[in-house]
Amino acid sequence: MIGRIAGQIVCKGEDHALIDVRGVGYVVYCTDRVLAGLAPGEAAALFTDLMVREDLLQLYGFPTLVEKEWFRLLMTVQGVGAKAALAMLGALGPDGVSRALALGDWTAIKAAKGIGPKTAQRVVNELKDKAPMVMAMGAGAAVSAPPAAPDGDAVIERAAPSAPVPVPSASAQAEALSALGNLGYGPGAAAGAVAQAAGEAPEADTAGLIRAALKLLAPKG
Hints:
By secondary structure, the chain is of the alpha+beta class. Helix content is 47%, strand content 20%. The radius of gyration is 18 Å and the shape is globular.
């Protein structure tokens, strides 16, 4: 499986980039956010997911392994294909998708191009309990693809499993989520509180997120 592509950007299309890797051109489909950061003539490195169908062979590229994992997870929802998954990641970014699922905010998911209300609600309903799992990956897996070497390189590897919005780092959110879990809070409630705290305090560090989340989780009355 092709897990990473590194080379020189030849050109960009509306939804893909052509990357030259030692004389071989790879068409890699990406979100609008990723494409905006790629420029013809410059080196680039992306983690990739290879989709193989009977009459189709396509590569999808992501700057981090966590974003790649969100792509895979979104496609497990009935009616959500690669195009829809990229649209959601492009509109919200990995952190935005994570926050929308944790808060059950299907209207945020619906903001993505081509995503209707029924699909948005299905995404939230099917993935809300899985959001904490991917959020927790941010502590160790939200690494960016290493820079491309000047002459380009293609790495084939098994790649296991968030992105440009003003919220606390994925690592801080993951650490806060882990701390709340250790205190006995359920993953769903903890994820929702951390997501809300992150949205309300973009500058918060791990300790700040934990304090804010505990206030939100405290019994009212």
